[in-house]
């Protein structure tokens, strides 16, 4: 049987030649902006290119990100204040999100530790640090109430959630046990807060909040949507090429197949679909 004829659009894509140096610079920009100095240093050596930023300066953002990822919000806030004492005072939404995540971690500890005083400490923390935000915006009040509702979740549910987290098992059980509060105990919340902090720090340093590749992904999604609205001749599926053939299937179901870099420069597919969706969803 003869091979299927490629769509004219696909032939044009195949004939398009992209400069290797442009691709290398795009990758380097991502590693620097997202805060992966070790990977950036190794890539610079392998690609024989000179980074446009001092890699040692990225380490402060890395320390903050790592503190948030492991749930040590107090350390993260202290590091942020050392780096930029005015950042959290100026960005109350960001400060609140950090404090709320810190409350969630305190509540988590109170249910997974034998220390009976931790529940009281969590409540006191909420009263002293988060309650003053409640009158400022209705969303602050709502988010605080939802976080405090975690105190009524049974201890056995917390135990199961904690034991399943390292193994990366299905979140269906957590969803069942925590219901509408499941997102507060999901590791993706730490990643989201860490990303928001990273972008805020970059913005405060007069740098771009996002890596260039994220702008390109959004532009590509916008261009395809516009072309389809104008009934232009396009293939039924156009893959971003981020996850092989799997992406073509997933994109039809609202999944975008993105991956996030882990601390050691590898890739972590968990939470990636939602993360890329954040950058490719276009308001109608």
TrEMBL record:
Domain CTLH: 58-114
Domain of life: Eukaryota
PROSITE patterns recorded: CTLH (PS50897), LISH (PS50896)
Compositionally biased residues, Basic and acidic residues: 243-252
Classification via InterPro entries: CRA_dom, CTLH/CRA, CTLH_C, LisH, Ubq-SigPath_Reg
Location of the region described as Disordered in the Swiss-Prot/TrEMBL record: 238-284
Protein's job: Involved in the proteasome-dependent degradation of fructose-1,6-bisphosphatase.
Protein name per its UniProtKB record: Protein FYV10
């Amino acid at each position: 049987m003869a091979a299927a004829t490629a769509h004219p659009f696909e032939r044009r894509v195949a004939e398009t030649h992209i400069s290797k140096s442009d691709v290398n610079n795009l990758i380097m920009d991502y590693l620097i902006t997202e805060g992966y100095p070790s990977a950036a240093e190794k890539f610079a050596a392998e690609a024989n290119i000179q980074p446009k930023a001092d890699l040692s300066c990225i380490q402060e953002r890395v320390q903050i990100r790592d503190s948030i990822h492991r749930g040590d919000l107090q350390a993260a806030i202290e590091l942020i204040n050392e780096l930029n004492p005015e950042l959290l005072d100026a960005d109350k939404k960001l400060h609140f999100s950090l404090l709320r995540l810190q409350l969630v971690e305190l509540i988590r500890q109170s249910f997974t530790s034998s220390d009976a005083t931790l529940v009281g400490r969590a409540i006191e923390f909420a009263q002293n640090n988060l309650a003053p935000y409640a009158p400022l915006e209705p969303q602050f009040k709502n988010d605080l109430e939802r976080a405090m509702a975690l105190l009524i979740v049974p201890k056995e549910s917390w135990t199961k959630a904690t034991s399943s987290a390292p193994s990366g098992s299905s979140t269906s059980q957590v969803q069942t046990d925590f219901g509408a509060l499941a997102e507060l105990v999901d590791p993706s919340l730490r990643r989201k807060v860490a990303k928001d902090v990273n972008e805020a720090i970059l913005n405060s340093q007069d740098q771009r909040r996002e890596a260039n590749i994220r702008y390109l992904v959004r532009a590509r999604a916008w261009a395809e949507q516009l072309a389809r609205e104008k009934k232009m001749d396009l293939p039924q599926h156009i893959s971003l090429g981020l996850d092989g053939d799997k992406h073509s299937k997933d994109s039809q179901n609202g999944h975008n197949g993105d991956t996030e870099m882990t601390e050691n420069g590898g890739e972590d597919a968990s939470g990636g679909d939602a993360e890329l969706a954040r950058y490719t969803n276009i308001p109608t």
